[in-house]
Every structure is written in structure tokens, then in C-alpha cells.
Amino acid sequence: MQSSNVVVVLLADVSADRLSIAATALHNEGYFAHTALVDISSFDSVKELAQKAFVIGPVETIILAAGVGPAADCARTVYEIDLLGTINVINAFLPIVQAGFNFVCISGMAGHLCPPLDPAFERHLATASRERLLAHPDFNINEPGPQGAAAAYDLSMRGKLVRVQASAAAWGSRGARINCVSPGVIPARTDQRGVDGSVDNLVRIPPARRAVTPADIVNAVAFLVNPGSCFITGTDILVDGGIVSSMRWDAE
Questions:
Q1: Closest by CA position to 70, among listed 186, 174, 163, 176
Q2: In this structure, what are the phi and psi dihedrals at residue 3, rounded to the nearest 5 degrees?
Q3: Most buried residue among 25, 40, 98, 204 by CB atoms closer than 10 A?
């Protein structure tokens, strides 16, 4: 958001402690930051956030980085936060966007590694209403434990990608753009799995041979929200150092 040539940041999180830490860090860097508690699995909560952003506004960019990983307690938790939460934000903010608005959704390379889906189910992921989304029988919605959460995470990352693709037309009709950034292995996270369950195996894969850094992700987001990328929408930037490509073509 930008007001009187001053960039204003609205930070939103489910944790008041994390919000306080992040806001203090931004203030120390000279930024002006508002905060808001939000539960992205609740559409009403996200609508309140969108309204607050509109009042502070004008809104220029939203970056959705909230989510849980495959080490969550069960499949339902992952779907409600990673997948349904994304749709809640897309739907809640669409009515307030204006020309030049940019939405960047942080997904994950798992969306590119997800096994091929039945076309009808993939269309459901991309276009179903938020009320009907999780009612599809192909969701392992009640599968408990790490195995259920891991499968739900992969499917949710795929769902983010196709939902962003399917939303591009509606956002474009308002002069706005919507895209994804899919990071590779993030070393600070302990909920990512390698080929045999080891993160170390993934970061050894060429060509990058390292994990993604925060700067790698920030640079991709900065590119997408820059006016120079004004013809890019409904797509995904895979920031994985070539891991997905190598896993597909250099498996041997």
C-alpha cells in the first residue's frame, strides 16, 4: 500500500507474537507497518482483513506466504490452511482490487512434483467454490498423521497453481495480475521431504546444489510486482535451482 508517497505495510498473521516481532523489525528499518490478526482458513476473518486493507489503502500488492508444511498433524489441517486459505484470500480481495494491483501467492515446488491428476478433479481444484471445494471424494480429507499431511501438502501446492491460473481472467478484468512463486528447499524448515525423506538429498541435486535463500524468493516476488512484468499473469515462477527439472530428466 502507498499513501502520500509513503509505503505502508499491513502484516497479517494468526500469531500475535510473530506479528509483533515482524512489525518491530520493519519499524527499525524505517517502514510504517500496521498489523492484523487473521485466520486464513476462515473466510469471514479474511474478509475483515481485506476491509482493513481497503481502509488503509490504496492496496497495490498482496503477498500470501501463510501456510503449513507436510509435517502438520493431519490432512484436513493442510487443506484448510494451504488450499482453502488461498481461495479465501483470492475471493476476499478480488472486490477491492484496482488497476495495477498485484497478487503473489507463495506455493512450493511440490506442486510441480504432484502425480498427474484426473482432469475433472484438477478442474475442481481450479474452479470449485470455496463452499464445495473440500467435499470432493478425491481428497484424503480425514487421513491422519504425517502420511496424510504429506499427500495433502503436495495436492494443496498443485491446487494453488491451478487456482491462480483459473483466477487470472477475473483479476485481469479489473486490471490486476495474479501469480505464484514456488520455492525449492528452504533450509530453515524442518517439514520438507527429499526423495527418500531427506532434505540433504534434494540440495545435492544439480544444477544449483544448494537450498533456496530468502533473497532468491524476494527477488522473484519483486520481479512479479514490478511494472516491467505487466504482461505476466496466471503463471508460476519455480525458484528451486533446477531441482524439479533434474528430478524429471536426470533421474538416472
A1: 186
A2: -135, 120
A3: 40
Angle at 83 between CA 239 and CA 236, to 5 degrees: 25
H-only helix segments in 75-229: 75-78, 84-93, 110-113, 119-127, 145-172, 199-203, 214-225
For the chain, the structural domain boundaries read: 63-249
Q: Measured between alpha carbons, how far is 137 from 153 in angstroms, rounded to an integer? A: 17
User: Of 100, 61, 57, which is closest to residue 227 (Cα–Cα)?
Assistant: 100
Nearest to 67 by CA among 57, 82, 77: 82
The CATH code of domain 63-249 reads: 3.40.50.720
Per-residue pLDDT of the chain (252 residues), as tens digits, is 655 567 889 999 999 999 999 999 999 988 899 999 999 999 999 999 999 999 998 889 999 999 998 888 889 999 999 999 999 999 999 999 999 999 999 999 999 998 899 999 999 999 999 999 999 999 998 888 888 999 999 999 999 999 999 999 999 999 999 999 999 988 755 444 443 445 666 767 768 778 899 999 999 999 999 999 999 999 999 999 998 998 888 765
- Angle between helix 145-172 and 84-93 (nearest 10): 20
Q: Which helix (H) or strand (E) holds 195?
A: none
Look at strands 6-13 and 2-3 and give their pairing.
antiparallel
